[in-house]
TrEMBL record:
Superkingdom to which the source organism belongs: Eukaryota
Record's function text: Putative FAD-dependent oxidoreductase.
Lineage: Eukaryota, Viridiplantae, Streptophyta, Embryophyta, Tracheophyta
Residue stretches making up the FAD/NAD(P)-binding domain: 4-276
Gene3D superfamilies to which the protein is assigned, alphabetical: 3.50.50.100
Name used for this protein in its record: FAD/NAD(P)-binding domain-containing protein
Family: Belongs to the FAD-dependent oxidoreductase family.
PANTHER family from the UniProt entry: APOPTOSIS-INDUCING FACTOR 1 (PTHR43735), FERROPTOSIS SUPPRESSOR PROTEIN 1 (PTHR43735:SF3)
Keywords recorded for this protein, A-Z: FAD, Flavoprotein, Oxidoreductase
Entry coiled-coil feature ranges: none
Amino acid sequence: MRKRVVVVGGGLAGALSAKLLEDHCDVTLLDPKDYMEVPYARLRSIVEPDITERSLVPHADYLKRANHLLGYAKDVSDKAVVTSTNEELPYDYLIIATGSTYDGPSTKAERIQEFHAENQKLRDAKKVLVIGGGPVGVELTGEIVVDFPEKKVVLAHGGDRLIEFVGPKASKKAFEWLEQHNVDIRLQERINLDKFSSPSHVYTTSSGASIEADCHFMCVGKKIGASWMKSTFLSEKQDKDGRLGVDNFLRVKGRSNIFAAGDITAVKEIKQGYLAGKHAQVVSNNVKRLIANPSSKLCAYKPLATPMALISLGRRIAVAQVPIGTFLGRIPGMIKSKDLFITMTRKGLGLKS
Ligand SMILES: Cc1cc2nc3c(=O)[nH]c(=O)nc-3n(C[C@H](O)[C@H](O)[C@H](O)COP(=O)(O)OP(=O)(O)OC[C@H]3O[C@@H](n4cnc5c(N)ncnc54)[C@H](O)[C@@H]3O)c2cc1C
């Protein structure tokens, strides 16, 4: 009898794990939407919604044998996952890949409409406020100033430098590039949305200053997809943020048949999409080995020691922080900004282009 594998979460880690395993066992992918979204393309999708045709990849397009079930996991035992529609999904092996929560629409068509609405909101505005100067806020600001240079953009960030997850050199390069593109950058300023009065479009900052803008985009951290495990036996494996402790083989600590991949793991490294893909490779490889022989030697995951990052600034330029240095320009831009890894992600899922 073929072994049953349940994959919870259909983001980068879950989708790739399901794809890599579908020829080797009976795979069920549980995800609340009927598509996988290439996250790197999310901000370009606001200025150019048409790219979502390729960056939103229906699970049905790349899964040939695995079954996709629409819904959330709400409970789990050592034998089965319980879904939001009270279905029980028994498993021999479980892969948890609920990196971040999702409360958006369940179909690709609806998600495309959402991007068109965001695009219209942007087009209708003369002055835009971007809230949050992490990678998401900086990339969105870059997209706006390149595609809509006539718009005034204010970028408000609570920290004392932009993109704090990388070194100060990369922050400085991004800051200077944005300033050259006339972005009004307000550091150490949080926006109090309670005090936001929508008819007059005046936003109040933590220092009491006012910013006038026709609309805003929230670019602050996403919530970890961890709360569904809170009252299950896995809660004792969660750290204070809800991330799952794993061993060197990405097995949830103390569990021989439960793995975790992607942002939900407590692996001590930066949380990034390309690392989520690496986790998926290791986890699917290990599940295959265990299916072939339960006493197989497993392959270990080596966490990334030095954070690397590519932050795009519009369509041609990016800031790169790599082991040999920090650069801003067209070469890093060629790697990321043109296609935003859409083709690479699709090919990783077995699609031709
Ligand atoms: C706008 C943006 C841009 C980014 N750009 C980059 C970049 O350029 N480079 C980079 O390396 N990283 C980037 N990242 C980070 C990258 O997206 C994440 O590290 C990556 O998506 C993690 O993948 P994941 O599969 O672990 O989690 P996610 O992609 O968050 O997927 C989690 C999945 O789990 C599902 N889920 C959640 N809860 C449940 C539940 N209870 N039951 C069932 N399913 C559930 C969700 O629907 C979702 O499909 C970016 C992130 C964002 C938001």
